[in-house]
Design brief:
By secondary structure, this protein is α/β, with parallel strands linked by helices. The chain has two domains: 129 residues, Rossmann fold (3-Layer(aba) Sandwich); 137 residues, Rossmann fold (3-Layer(aba) Sandwich). The chain is built from nine helices and twelve strands. The strands form two sheets. The protein has a six-stranded mixed β-sheet. Strands 9-8-7-10-11-12 form a six-stranded parallel β-sheet, with helices on both faces. α1 links the parallel β1 and β2. α4 packs across α5 and α4 packs across α8.
Length: 277
């Protein structure tokens, strides 16, 4: 008997998510009979919705805003990296019916950088990270796991940056937001993890004059695909990484957890998602 496989994304709101298009494309490509659906779940109903997954024969779900942190206390088992990041973006229903929580945002970021810049090395020098929210936590965790040893967090609220640096441990320091341009002199990578530069938000104001021309400039914003930061970096010759790659690559290990197949991000798939932006 052929099994109909189900997966989805829980968020509130959630209908803007590109995940259904992405995962359904992979399901069709790999002959997985089933569907990936958007699930609008209010925060008060998250535990009830997650606990219903085994009964409804779901293989699992992705989690997006505002559920990533709350899921930590709901799932039965949590991956070590997700614990360190302090958020879950993928829930899998284990063979015993238990809920397992993972966070693949770090994987997605590192894979997107590797894809855009195959020659990128872990010893790029200091890495400047703008922001101290959930995305910053995941990216810093991924960079440390990759072998980075010198990361400086620059955030508008200094106290949040200092707490994140403390949580992340050795090799992570902070600098005031007012010095965001000044810290770039020794940087081998600059990463914007804030929403500044997103459609409807003001552009990020930063002077890249001190940034070495070989430094990689990343922005996790993907609407627009080329933010003012990436445009400024590209025009001065820096290699750039947009935010769409992180979105695409973080989905791959989730699909593998649910269906046993590690899919690829092809140029055709990327173009299909880009057309919806």
């Amino acid at each position: 008997m052929q099994v109909y496989r189900l997966a989805g994304v829980m968020g509130y709101p959630v209908m803007h998510s590109r995940s259904p298009l992405l995962h359904n494309s992979w399901m069709q490509e790999h002959g997985v009979t089933g569907h990936y659906v958007p699930l609008a779940v209010q925060p008060a109903n998250l535990e009830q919705a997650l606990r219903a997954l085994p009964t409804l024969s779901f293989s699992g779900v992705n989690l997006t805003i505002p559920h990533k942190e709350a899921a930590l206390t709901i799932v039965d088992r949590v991956d070590e990296l997700a614990l360190r990041i302090g958020a879950v973006n993928c829930v899998c229903v284990a063979p015993d019916g238990k809920l397992e929580g993972f966070n693949f945002d770090a994987f997605g970021f590192i894979a997107s950088v590797d894809e855009a810049n195959p020659e990128w090395k872990r010893d790029v020098g200091q890495i400047a990270v703008l922001g101290s929210g959930g995305a910053a936590r995941a990216i810093i965790a991924g960079l440390l796991q990759r072998g980075a040893r010198d990361i400086v967090i620059v955030n508008r609220t200094r106290e949040r940056a200092e707490q994140l640096a403390k949580d992340m441990g050795e090799g992570v320091t902070t600098a005031p937001w007012e010095q965001r341009s000044d810290v770039l002199g020794e940087a081998g990578m600059l990463v914007n993890t804030t929403s500044i530069g997103m459609h409807g938000q003001p552009d990020l104001t930063i002077d890249l004059q001190r940034l070495p021309q070989v430094a990689v400039v990343c922005d996790i914003v993907y609407v627009p695909l080329e933010t003012s930061l990436l445009k400024q970096a590209r025009e001065r010759g820096n290699p750039t990484v947009d935010g769409l790659g992180m979105l695409l690559h973080q989905a791959r290990p989730a699909f593998a957890k649910w269906f046993g197949i590690m899919p690829k991000v092809t140029p055709e798939l990327r173009a299909k998602i880009e057309a919806t932006l």
